[in-house]
Amino acid sequence: MKTRESIPLQGTNGASIQILEQSETILIIRWVEPGRCHYGEQRWRRRSAHTSGTCALSRRKIRRGDAVFKPAERPAPSNAAIMIAAEMLGDLAHD
Question: Which residues does residue 8 pair with via DSSP β-bridges, in sequence order?
């Protein structure tokens, strides 16, 4: 897993997102939604989207079957339905 300089991002609904570590299949993210939840080091796994939705970073449409990252913890965290399009991380790496 590649540790990278923390990348602060602004997500949907006022969420503050920082990517702390990244590999092809796993992200370690700090996810903060004021008044709702705070996950200091949350593990997200790459998978195929089971439902359509919206990327938490880009607000681009996600279709069922697209490659996404989702929270991997059990029991399901309060942000379990949130998705980040895998293609977004490639875009961030080239910035």
Answer: 18
Copy the structure tokens of residue 53: 């939705």
Write out the residue range of the structural domain in which residue 18 sits: 2-93
Rounded to whole angstroms, how far apart are CA atoms 68 and 7? 18
pTM of the model: 0.82
Cα(28)–Cα(42) distance, integer angstroms: 5
Q: Regarding predicted confidence, which is higher, 25 or 1?
A: 25
> What 3-state class would DSSP assign to 67?
strand
3-state secondary structure of 36: coil
Each residue of 3-41: b (16+ CB within 10 Å) or e?
eeeeeebebeeebebebbebeeeebbbbbebeeeeebee
pLDDT (tens digit per residue) in 41-59: 999 999 999 999 999 888 8
